[in-house]
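Incident log, structure service

09:12 report received: a user says their structure output differs between two submissions of the same chain.
09:20 pulled the input from the user's history:
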Amino acid sequence: MIKLSSSSRQPIREAWTLERLNAELTINLGMAIDRSTHSSYTSVLNSYITFCRLHGFDIEPTPRTLALYVTFQSMYINPKSVDTYLSGICNQLEMHFPLVRTARQSTLVSRALQGAKRRFGVATLRKLPLTRNNLLEVFSSLGRSPSHDDLLFATQLFVGTDCLMRLAELTWPDKVSLRDYRKVTMRHSVQHLDNAISFWLPGHKADQYFEGNRLFIRKTSSEAYNLFKSYISSRDNCFRARPELWLRTNGTIPTRSWFIHRLRSFFPSSIGGQSMRASGATALAEAG
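09:34 re-ran on a clean worker, output below:
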């Protein structure tokens, strides 16, 4: 029997029941990945199970089964997506089949995927970045007395571009089950500094520890700075008691579909939510 070292004292804690240990473990496992990622991985697992049932294969993810799955799926979707699908399959099946990642990394699966990419691969279609003229077009449309929602959209567009933000960091998912208040930016996090205004971005799915980031809108970014000040004034007049920073006229947090609908009233589908981040990054690169 291993004895405890006398030089290391352990705090006295009450023993948990087995039921509580299992319950807490279940919660931790459920929070290991983001809700949106879990939803995508569940869909991917369904596609793998459907493939196995369709062809009469055992569900165990052997190298050959995964290679056949890659071959089949690559006929219908981009092989780059199939590569991502394999990650989801590994995540969902690892608890039941501990060797699934070994099978995923096997030579057979790797070569099947590489061959599919060479055979069926297509160029990645990316959204175009917003140009300076694009932004000014939205800014000039506001007029002297813009509505609260018009001001909200323009502010999010300019701030998102200036701070290299993702659309998901400014809006809520359309699917209610994927909404998470831990990712919602709060009004009380806004700080007015001498040469900038800042607010706290609490977290996103790539920020697994929810450490967050403080974003700054500097006075030198005149349109973004002035729009943010105007929006804050309008928001506080309408919703002084509400904690959320971004709010529509009806009191709801703007959703992705709401933002995209507004974006479509100005630009074609070649401009999307990713265009803000791409535009900001391009501007920084050009500035050196």
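09:41 both user submissions now match this output. Likely a transient worker issue. Closing.
09:42 reviewer note: The domain at 132-287 is CATH 1.10.443.10 (hpI Integrase; Chain A). The mean pLDDT is 88.
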